[in-house]
Amino acid sequence: xxxxxxxxxxxxxxxxxxxxxxxxxxxxxxxxxxxxxxxxxxxxxxxxxxxxxxxxxxxxxxxxxxxxxxxxxxxxxxxxxxxxxxxxxxxxxxxxxxxxxxxxxxxxxxxxxxxxxxxxxxxxxxxxxxxxxxxxxxxxxxxxxxxxxxxxxxxxxxxxxxxxx
Amino acid sequence: xxxxxxxxxxxxxxxxxxxxxxxxxxxxxxxxxxxxxxxxxxxxxxxxxxxxxxxxxxxxxxxxxxxxxxxxxxxxxxxxxxxxxxxxxxxxxxxxxxxxxxxxxxxxxxxxxxxxxxxxxxxxxxxxxxxxxxxxxxxxxxxxxxxxxxxxxxxxxxxxxxxxxxxxxxxxxxxxxxxxxxxxxxxxxxxxxxxxxxxxxxxxxxxxxxxxxxxxxxxxxxxxxxxxxxxxxxxxxxxxxxxxxxxxxxxxxxxxxxxxxxxxxxxxxxxxxxxxxxxxxxxxxxxxxxxxxxxxxxxxxxxxxxxxxxxxxxxxxxxxxxxxxxxxxxxxxxxxxxxxxxxxxxxxxxxxxxxxxx
Lengths: 165, 358
Description:
The structure holds 2 protein chains of 2 kinds. Chain A is mostly helical. Chain A is built from 2 helices and no strands. In chain B, the strands form 3 sheets. Chain B has a 3-stranded antiparallel beta sheet with strand order 4-3-8, with no helix packed on it. The interface between A and B is large, with 35 and 49 residues.
């Protein structure tokens, strides 16, 4: 049947037409189109991924910022509490230091007072001794003069001593 | 309201045109069988090729096309309108004999007919050329868009074109062929768009369309042979091994090579199926449409003009339905051809199986 027998001329021209079409499109058409489309698909994919990443980052950033603020607030509270504690501690310490110092000073002054007293006693004893010795010496030297005279002498020396001191 | 008026006008115009068509059709065939419509002749005339492209509503005039023949006395080129009326020109005429019906033959000195090498630009060849130019224009316009606009997505017609390209390449060829896709994409895409364009052109009834291109076995033969050649020339060692020494029990391949024979046959049946599928689908679509339209004239000649006129509306409704169906089939068949070609190629470039079968 005519329909089922391929016509030679038509086969020939069909082949020529297809060959030309293929040559033109394979050289200048399809590779460029496919490359462009794939590039664009890649670009879009990357864009979507980038946007998702950016959104995630933004969400993260918000959470991070909140966290930071909370942290800062707690830190601030900590610092304030610490400062208060330190202040009271300082005051306490200063107070106790001062008390101790005072005690020390007082003890030291007592000691020095005692020492001074002892010193004075010692001094006085020495002086009294000396004085007694002098008096005794003078008494012995003028032994022979009258009682009145001796008494007057003693008075005189005592006066001397008193004025000396 | 407005749309109803438009519908009524269009319907009226169609009916009048159909009447005119009936008129010229009846006149055309009247010299053969008075008043009778030779439906078979009508169908084969529409499905077949022609030397010249008929214009609507006119059977005596047609767009002349060049006839190129290589006869016993060398090359002859002339326009088809010199012989389509039944005349003989430079010893050539369109045969009416049984053997070469409707083809250009050379009348030899002894009166016998000799069929020369016929390279005529027939209606189908011209149709193929138009389809090829259309495909080039479409694809190049898309390419120019990318060259000019870079990453911007095309709109309108180019957007639709890109959608189809994306569908065929990204969703079909690439998953099937994988990393080999770019190598074969040019052939497969060209085949797809060429077939699609030819299919759709065949559905347009007047001049740039109307040629039954993919419903012609010569056209599908070329396409199938190309797939056959590409498949087998890119066949790997593993592909040929699976044909001549497949993994089946030895008694199936030696001494009697049953499986190799089956496999070898498969090489040829696959493209054969491609050829016949496309051809038969498109041809039958055209045929059904022509038969439906012919019903009007058959009923008119068999019964009366009134019966024929009554057939117009249902016949046109069915025709419209068939044409819509054919539009779908045009796409499906182009897609199926591309899909199967891609699958055949992917089967030919198979790598050795990783699992050992001993």
